[in-house]
Amino acid sequence: MLPEKDCSRAMLSIKDALEAVEGRWKLLILYSLCSGPKRFSEIGREVAGITDKTLAKELKALQANKLIKRDVYDTSPPTVEYTITKHGRSLNKVLYELWNWGLAHRKEVIGK
Amino acid sequence: MLPEKDCSRAMLSIKDALEAVEGRWKLLILYSLCSGPKRFSEIGREVAGITDKTLAKELKALQANKLIKRDVYDTSPPTVEYTITKHGRSLNKVLYELWNWGLAHRKEVIGK
DNA sequence: GATAGTACTTTCCCTTTGGAAAGCACTATC
DNA sequence: GATAGTGCTTTCCAAAGGGAAAGTACTATC
After folding, report:
1. CA-CA 20 to 30 A from B104: which of A36, A75, A86, B41?
2. What share of chain A is helix, strand, coil (3-state, %, to 5)?
3. Which fold has domain B10-110?
């Protein structure tokens, strides 16, 4: 499965992947964008509890990782739309495995 | 793939999984234990840069998640041995997917 | 001319995290 | 009797993270 010899390289990739997904908010934002492009305040409303500051920061991180894209339309006041990218959607397999293992983990650890 | 209706439940499992794996150290410790049971100071030596305090904390977290087990032998000074569990090994699939996606992610985002 | 809305940014402050270093109880060794 | 080693814990401190709330530049609306 995982290359034993090349452990440090594998760790690098795994860290990259974890970084793209870690934290309380990134997945929730991504989920929110699954149902279509949304604007800043829309996402803020859908992702319950997130502050403007945090939302702005997370959106930047997601952009930097090319999981979402940001489009500005020249209206007034300007409209900004966030869309999940193909790369963002490709996280699905990872999330599925995490979900799967997380279920087994719950059973194993919490027993419920 | 992922249940859309049951998004918040799925999120719970995913968070469980992420929590078990997140941070700079847990995977390194787990990797170190792949090659056989080890003692506290051995792990400390293998996982370069980790402090005693952090190692103790991470080992507790891994234990709580049943990814490793801790055995104390009644020698003097007492010997404590850490072993990866079957559940710990079952993380393999998740790590494989993370590794895989992480590789694609590197290509996509860093382009190298 | 006051208010509201958009997409953020900034400031303040508090909590958490994490490293460095020392401590500790015990024993074996020199 | 001093030193070393074991498996941690404790203390100190600095940096980072994150929420609350207000600010900003602009425009449209009443």
Report:
1. A36
2. 60, 10, 30
3. Arc Repressor Mutant, subunit A (1.10.10)
